[in-house]
């Protein structure tokens, strides 16, 4: 797949794009990803996140508002591998990961606030397919996300 570079997208479609102004770090070997947005809002719990990634991703992107927590990780190597193996284009987390060395070795990309060795709870707390807001923007289910080392952009409809 020929991934669109975010810098090129801004040059050609800036008025149609929203920029996520938030200090997320990219983990994984993939340069980035693009796809339709699926959302989850949760805090320090990854049971629903795992359930979503166990389903076929069909090239979609999972955006998780984890409240910005760096106290516990909501994604580790096993959950990232679920996303990769089930066809999810990538993950954007307003939260932390663990097993960062293992995730960095995957041909996948996960954007996250940081890392923590601590596990999350597994109570299924959270809300799926609701708009989530961080980085001075709202991620809306069904909109399209483009991510690479330069940043994260969202548009209402796919850009050509």
UniProtKB/TrEMBL annotation:
Its cofactor is a divalent metal cation. It catalyses: oxaloacetate + H(+) = pyruvate + CO2; 4-hydroxy-4-methyl-2-oxoglutarate = 2 pyruvate. The keyword Lyase applies. It comes from the Bacteria. Signal peptide: none annotated. The keyword Lyase applies. Its EC number is 4.1.1.112, 4.1.3.17. It is an enzyme of class 4 (lyase). InterPro entries: RraA (IPR010203), RraA/RraA-like (IPR005493), RraA/RraA-like_sf (IPR036704). Belongs to the class II aldolase/RraA-like family. Catalyzes the aldol cleavage of 4-hydroxy-4-methyl-2-oxoglutarate (HMG) into 2 molecules of pyruvate. Also contains a secondary oxaloacetate (OAA) decarboxylase activity due to the common pyruvate enolate transition state formed following C-C bond cleavage in the retro-aldol and decarboxylation reactions. This is 4-hydroxy-4-methyl-2-oxoglutarate aldolase. It comes from Pelagibacterium nitratireducens.
């Amino acid at each position: 797949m020929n991934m669109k570079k975010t810098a090129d997208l801004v040059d050609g479609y800036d008025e149609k794009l929203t920029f996520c102004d938030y200090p997320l770090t990219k983990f994984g070997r993939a340069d980035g990803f693009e796809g339709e947005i699926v959302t989850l809002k949760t805090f320090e719990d990854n049971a629903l996140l795992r359930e979503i990634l166990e389903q076929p991703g069909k090239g979609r992107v999972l955006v998780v508002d984890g409240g910005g927590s760096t106290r516990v990780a909501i994604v580790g190597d096993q959950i990232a591998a679920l996303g990769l193996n089930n066809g999810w284009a990538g993950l954007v987390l307003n939260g932390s990961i663990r097993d960062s060395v293992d995730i960095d070795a995957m041909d996948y990309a996960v954007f996250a606030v940081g890392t923590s060795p601590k596990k999350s709870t597994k109570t299924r707390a959270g809300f799926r397919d609701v708009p989530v807001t961080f980085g001075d923007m709202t991620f809306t289910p069904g909109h399209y996300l483009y991510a690479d080392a330069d940043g994260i952009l969202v548009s209402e409809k796919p850009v050509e």
